[in-house]
Design brief:
alpha/beta, Endonuclease, Chain A, 2 domains, 434 Repressor (Amino-terminal Domain), 13 helices, six-stranded mixed beta sheet
Amino acid sequence: MAGSNDLGSPTLCRLKLRLELRALREEAGMTSIDVAKTVKWSAAKMTRLETGDGWVQPTDVEALCRLYGASAEQTELLAAYALVTKTHKDEWKSKEYQQVILPGFSAYLGLEGAASQVRIYESEYVPGLLQTESYMRELLRHTRRPQEEIDRQIEIRLKRQAVLTREADPARLGAVVNEAVLRRVLGNAELMREQLDHMAKRATEANIKLQVVPFTAGFHPAMTGSFTVLSFEDPKVGPIVHIEALGSATVIGDRERVRGYEDTWADLIGTAASHDRSISMLKQAAKEM
């Protein structure tokens, strides 16, 4: 069996458990109420197990696997996932970070760190994974939060960027931004030139593709707002969508809703300027600052 460090983050393990336990139950032709009555558990406990809310007891997973007729190999793997949720803690769950993370955002962070592909559309500012520290600080300064909270937010954002440079299979990033992101000056011209030059340089890395939607494109399919789509190596874990709004963050896993965002993404990259043209636009915008 793979070591616990090979199984992914606790957030990803909870997601895999939720999906696989539900699939096993449905294959066995049982409802969650049927299962709760059979094993003499409360409905609340069944809900917790299938929604991935908190840590999961490996012995509970083994009991369900026996009931569903799962193979010994699958039982061992799912119990290992449960052990990770019980014995490991996502870095973002620490008290120091929870105080400054938006509700619902810590779940996204655990998934982002385990993603194999990140697709982002941003309409107003540079995507966090491509921001310089100076740009982050200027952006967060306008939140009027205490300096200590701003410093913590920057620490989180810089750590998140490691997903693109990790030694084992760095995530592939597809980033599409509105041209307004290039033209809106945060702080001063020098700060923006540094940011735009940074984006252009990062865009030359093999795992990063950057595109700009020019003003001349007119209508485009993502005018309703920014979004992120995460994908994973495990085919059993479908893509998830993250949407951040004022004071909140939402993770969407429903396949039909996610498919709508993927369709929008496909249309969007067809509307945006090419990767090479977009890099030229970044460099030109930097010169004009």
